[in-house]
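Bench notes, afternoon.
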Amino acid sequence: MEVVRLRRDQMGAASDLLARSFHDDPAWVWLIPDADRRRSLLPWLFRVGFEVTAADVYGAVEPVTAPDPIGVARWLPPGRPAMHVGATLKALVTTPFRLGATTGSFLAYGKAVEELRSKVAPGAHWYLAGIGVDPGSQRQGVGAALLQPGIAGAEAARLPTVLLTNNEANLSFYSGHGFSVVREGRTPTDGPMAWAMVRSP
């Protein structure tokens, strides 16, 4: 298994993978309660996310047997804007037509996440903007491998590494890699629970 920067032509496969990985995630269940609608929307939403975010996208691949990624992580280095302005403006125009009445919940959730991140890490840091492993490849070290690009970058710069998870079951995994919970609460106040975690260099 290798961890590589994904190419633009691999983003479709990466979006499908994240859709499978996050289908039952508490945040996505809260945002899109209907399972069939969630299954339909998530691949598109993750693809939009790849276009909007300025994060580096890494994939875990088996070059010979499985060239499509079996795991994906989005790492945002310090000093880089979180969003591409042009793509974000385009998404703000088109996304409400797909999301309909749930658009407000998405905006409130996104705002709450960014506010929580700024509170726990107001200074420079590496940010894990998302990580997912294909259900058939979980518990095989894929997630641990995908953490390394950001952790290595943070340690080299003597900076903290920050993440947010809405799934309590993930806490032990991240704790095993040096992250500690620094704040928890609902995002937004009527939304899913969230745990902000920080790893010191």
